[in-house]
Amino acid sequence: MSAAKDKKSAKKDADDPFDELVVSTSFDRSLLRRLLKFVKPHRALFAKSFLVLGLLFALDLVGPWLWKHAIDGPVMSAVEAKNRADKAGTTADVSVFLGEFWWWMGVYIASVLVAIWFRYLEVSQLNRTGQVVISDLRSQLFAHMQSLDLSFFDKRPTGSLVTRVTSDVENLNEMFTSGIIVLLFDLVKVAALLVILFFLDAQLAAVVLAGTPVLIGISIAFRGGARNAHRTVRAKLSRLNGYLQEVLQGIRVVQVFRREKQVSARFAEHLAGYLKANLRTIFLFALFFPAIDFAVSLIQGSTLWVGGIGIARGDLTYGEFVQFWFYVAMLVSPIRELGERYNVLQSAFASSERIFQVLDTRTIVANGPKRLAPSALTGHVRFEHVSFSYDNSVEVLNDVSFEIRPGHTVAVVGATGAGKSTIVNLLLRFYDPTSGRITLDGVDLRELDLSDLRKNFGLVLQEDFLFAGTIEENLVMDRDEVSDEALAEALEASRADEVIARLPRGLASPVAERGATFSTGERQLLAIARALAGSPKIVILDEATASVDSGTESKIEAATHELLMGKSALVVAHRLSTVRRADQILVMHRGKLRERGTHDELMQQNGIYARLHDLQFASSA
Amino acid sequence: MSRLWPFFRRFLRHKRELIPGFLCIPLATLGDVVITVVIGNALDELRLGSTTDFLAGIVAIVLGLAFVRGIFRYLQRWWVVAVSRYVENELKQELFDKLVSLPFSFHVKSRSGDIVSRVTSDVENVRMFLGPGMMYTAGAVVMIPVSMGLLLSINAPLAATMVIPLVLMGLGMKVFTPKLHVISLAVQESLAEIGHRAQENFSGIRIVKGYGREAQQVLKFEEASAINRENQIALGRSRGLTNAITHAANDFTFVVILVIGGLAMIDRSLPAGDLFKFIDLTFKVFWPIIAVGWIAGMYPRARASAERIDQLLAEPNDIAEKMPPTQIANVRGALSLRGVSFTYPNAAKPALSGITFEVPAGSVVGIVGPTGSGKTTLLLMLGRLLDTTSGEIALDGVPVRDLSLAQLRGALGYVPQDSFLFSEPYRDNVSFGIDGSLSEERLREVVDLACMTEEVARFPAGFDQLIGERGVTLSGGQRQRTCIARALAKDPHVLVLDDALSAVDTETETKLIDNLRRAGHGRTVVIAAHRLSSVASADRIVVLTRDGTMEATGKHKDLVARDGWYKDTWSRQQAQDEISVL
Q: What is the pTM of this model?
């Protein structure tokens, strides 16, 4: 069931180049609950964030309140006193009012100074909170991926997996810093302001309240349109850039076939589609901002009307009017951004959905309970009636039985798709057999601790891989058991010391991306050294078919010989020299073991292998 | 600005939209200011017991003005931003045409990621600065003097003092912006590092798991993730500081208004309506000022981008055509190479040197040699995708440099090593090299020659099947055969195959080579190959060495009889083939 689901999602990844454009359709409560789990350990930070936002909001509210008191109190009183004095023909003493005025100003300046600190915290605190949470999530995600079966990686393009730990996680950061907390708080703000407005002046508040749905309506209507338009723009842009990249990649074909004009015309078509999509977003934005502004003016005009009547009747003071005006401005800005915040939230939900999909993937190849004492291990491997299928329909291996006795080398030959690599995958327990069993020193692999099991292997793969870092790091791979002496011996035995001697900084030389600085042959030598350094009990060797020059080839042959000496080994062989030396040769054909024996035995059998050998012998004669 | 001037001129070409667009800016701004003035004046009229009959008229005026302002704002955005998109498209098209015309040597030395970023993000940087950037600046340029002039006329000391917090903010930001820039860069880098670590781990997962290194990889990843987290938090602090600075400036402007305005009111020199004008205009002026700061911050990037775009547009085309070119009346397809050498720019050693051989019209010649021996380079020189460093290549006795590119390349059919196909319908890929359309009959014929008929029949949409990421994915062998069909569709005099049979099975290979020979009577075929069976039947085989010189030339039976690279490789490949065919 879960395997089928996996496959489906993998297919979606592979087939849909606009994967990242997939946007969750609805606000998902269970998703939110899961996200909250990651929030829980950092409750204190979240509480602090809310506190900062709350106090900042309070400070924002205090400002206009102080204005009101300053204007209605000392300022108006002083003006009235002066007016009275004018009428009486005397001069008024306003020093009391001035004193009071300065007192209000002092409080106001203090509140502004405190607000500066909170403005700093508003951004830095929210950001820290988001970062701490997503950094946890990212590590957990990566660690979980490391524990997943190889089938998980085999089924999905690397790029889409990388997106999970990069862009998807980044999207969630947006959600914490400018999405959910702020959105929740904006809603609190709008509600609180409306309540405050009602307390200040119910009539005026009713006017504002009547206008608010219009604002929210515009904002939400815009959200949907803008999101669709943006999505189209991004899809068109990705087509446009895709075409550009394609043409650059095929530039020699374009030039030899003299198709410059034609590809240019095609590019123009893509550009036209892109422009059309862009014009639509421009139209929407050009419409949105003025529409919102007009709605705001509508509210302000009505406020002026009702407020003006209030002032004339004496129901409302100037100060109250100013305070009201400020609060209305504070009310408008969160509503204006409502649509944008909602979009951030949705794309974050889509990302978290994809992240949880990965976190929900279960490991099938599970750790067994038995630990191995490495020193006692003899390296005796048995395949007993092993069958295997990657997708439960086509059998890649069919009833394969063989054994690798301690110290023996078993070579596997066969065509592409004969099941050679599958044997390697099963022995390393990258996959488990569909039926039959594989034992190491008589114990079923499934009962063994995975890391214990794999520690005993020396692995050299066809497309061997070097990681970014120094050569030494690549050879040692953080294995405690690899001492400096062991490394030096391994290098000498594998002839890789010659490769390293050529490098200006020796073992400390950095490896460029994927080892691009080394030839295939050199990489092969380094991989052999890496395997040798761990003094493995069992060697798994998938020989490279890529052409290497004859000098390197003989070095690889010698190194291979060194690697296999005295160890149990499974070799997927492409070179006949390795095959000939093997203690046993398995000839695979379409998942079945067709012939087995030593070189001489197989020659006597006069079967497939013998025919092969004769052909080669004849052609080189 | 001088760097950006030529780009600005591209904007100015769209006078029809740009002039009305920019005219709308002051009109909208004026409407905005007048609204404040009208409301402020109305407040002055209001006092206890005054009539309120005039308010309805005022509100009507305000709404009318707001509506007109809205229309101007709409038109301004619609015209100016749209022009920026037109210019973006023109630039992209121009860059694209330039790229397509640039010689292959340019594409060899440049990274495609870099080129793509010039066409995408560099163009976007210039567009943002010159389009929306100019629009906001123009808005601010009108708004700031008009409002300040108005406020100065109402109360000069107040208006003058109001500016102080703004100036301080400007200074604060100037000090702070470079630091912000440095931290943003660090964040970008640490993000890239995370992506890199993940990419590497997922690609090398077999080794990671095979050696049981998962835990160590998690630790390393966590390190990278932690560095990013710390950088992000540092960036958050800097952003917090900028946020604090801007808001402080805003808040202190209001402090100034209230303190000085309040004192002026007590003095009865500032009516309440005028105080309102100060408050409301500060709301309206403040954010345009911030926007100007933001645009000024964009300038260095826009200038650098303009430079990179210019650089690409100014790239010289060094494959020149002779004027007037020599014409070959009837191309036969004979090639001759005399002392041909080629050295890649900045390379220490030549990739090829002293290559001399003749290819009679209608013959099949094979080019073989170890990886890196210059096979591909040699083939690229035939169609002048690269020009020889020394020596000469001639088609039917005429040096290729003297021919028009149209005639030379028109005579060639080319099958590239990477079997490049477009993500377009199958039919379009095959007819890619044809002027006009390919007849259905001919299409079937070449697809058949390329041994692809059966496969095409299995496509859900047949010849109209979309291929590539969004359609069906072709196997390596199918791609190669499709590329051959594409080359054959042109009916070229010289067919050039660059290791184009490597993914085709041996049986099909034999059939294909046979088809190629029979299809064109008198067609010259040049095959570079890694697998020697592809060239075994050639009339002549040229063996190159690792150093790019010629080791031997002759027929297959001569070369296998002689000790050397050819004989060694032949026997090894035969053995390998047999193992894998089994």
A: 0.77
